[in-house]
Design goal:
Length: about 280
């Protein structure tokens, strides 16, 4: 079986590529430029969301996992490009009989404020889930991604900011469980829309406490209102200083929602690790 992966330089895409290669699959990496060190056994083909009309060659590809996206930086048209590129890939897969797998997010819903959440939700509504697989992921726990940025911030700073008191609901999913579900769904040619996250709901404060403990820290928590944090982040972004979070992350945080995942987890045949179990494996 041959699997194509967009965004294979990213956190989830790279984990998927390694998994499929180690299990004897052929893997086609679709990314803007060839990596400095190609994963052993993989092949690479140029693909860029910036040019959504330039489609990849999917000859002999059985499934395509679309993890790539263009981040919003305040002045680009990332939402339009993400939507156009995803729909072009989806239609290409339909025309060639390729199983299309789209990774969305629990931040994608009707009340989303972030461009990330908005474009993912728009795509969920435009893709036909009777013909592809859509997975809405919780906060992915692994050694990269947003979790890793939060972890590193605890390693560096003696305090942490709890936006709005840190009462926002959070559901997590271990990267190993994400990879396992995607691999199983491809093997089963599963279609439909599923929310993939542990059923246990944490507050943002509880998440921070657990991550800080993993980092060997007992930070001082400072509760700050949304408006003040937003002003601070936007000011820092204007002068292009590095931050572990962005104004996009803040907008996503403001509209976090909890979901009952029990039925979807049953259909997917998985009991995912909870937050502490996930942290123990890192």
């Amino acid at each position: 079986m041959r699997i194509a992966i967009t965004g294979s330089n990213g956190f989830i895409g790279n984990e998927l590529a390694r998994h499929f290669l180690s299990n004897g699959y052929e893997v086609l990496l679709l990314q803007r430029k060839a990596p400095e060190s190609l994963l052993l056994g993989a092949t690479c083909q140029a693909y860029d969301i910036n040019t959504p009309d330039v489609l990849p060659n999917l000859t002999d590809v059985d499934a395509l996992v679309h993890t790539a996206y263009m981040p919003f930086n305040g002045n680009n048209n990332s939402t339009e490009k993400n939507i156009k590129a995803t729909l072009a890939l989806y239609n290409l897969c339909l025309s060639q009989g390729v199983h299309f797998v789209f990774l969305s997010s629990m931040s994608a819903h009707a009340n989303a404020l972030s461009q990330y959440g908005k474009h993912k939700f728009e795509l969920e509504n435009q893709l036909n889930s009777d013909k592809c697989l859509i997975l809405k992921l919780g906060l992915v726990i692994g050694e990269q991604g947003l979790f890793n940025r939060i972890y590193n911030s605890f390693k560096k700073m003696p305090f942490a900011v709890l936006v709005g008191g840190g009462t926002q609901p959070v559901q997590t999913i271990y990267i190993g469980d994400v990879v396992k579900v995607i691999a199983n769904c491809i093997a089963q040619k599963r279609i439909g829309t599923y929310t993939l996250a542990s059923g246990k709901v944490y507050t943002m404060a509880e998440l921070f406490i657990a991550i800080a403990a993993k980092a060997g820290k007992t930070p001082i928590f400072i509760s700050v209102p949304y408006w003040l944090v937003s002003c601070g982040i936007k000011t820092i972004e204007l002068v292009h200083l590095p931050l572990s979070v962005s104004s996009e992350n803040l907008l996503g945080l403001k509209q976090l929602q909890a979901f009952d995942t029990s039925d979807d987890l049953r259909k997917l045949g998985i009991t995912p690790l909870d937050l502490q179990q996930s942290l123990n494996l890192l």
